[in-house]
Recover the amino acids of this structure.
């Protein structure tokens, strides 16, 4: 199974217009817009993942985080995260 991520856009973030100013969200350098554009809900989990990524300096540091158990995620979600993380760290 091939998993493809999409970059954040007005179209794929429209459902979050009640929670965010979409123009500001699209200008964000953080990972949250990428998570939301790729199927995550805006909740404590996505916010925590975004904070971990935004504060980390390497992929290893993210995956080894003590704050969130990335291994508990499904293989599909882990693959999506891996692709999103590569966008930020490579």
């Amino acid at each position: 199974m091939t998993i493809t991520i999409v970059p954040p856009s007005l179209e794929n973030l429209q459902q979050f217009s009640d929670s965010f100013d979409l123009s500001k969200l699209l200008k964000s350098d953080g990972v949250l817009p990428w998570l939301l554009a790729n199927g995550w809900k805006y909740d404590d989990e996505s916010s925590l993942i975004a904070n971990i990524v935004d504060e980390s300096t390497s992929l290893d540091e993210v995956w080894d985080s003590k704050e969130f158990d990335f291994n508990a995620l499904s293989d599909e979600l882990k693959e999506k995260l891996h692709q999103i993380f590569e966008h930020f760290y490579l």
In short: Residues 10-89 form one domain. DSSP finds six helices and no strands in the chain. The chain has one domain: 10-89. The mean pLDDT is 92.
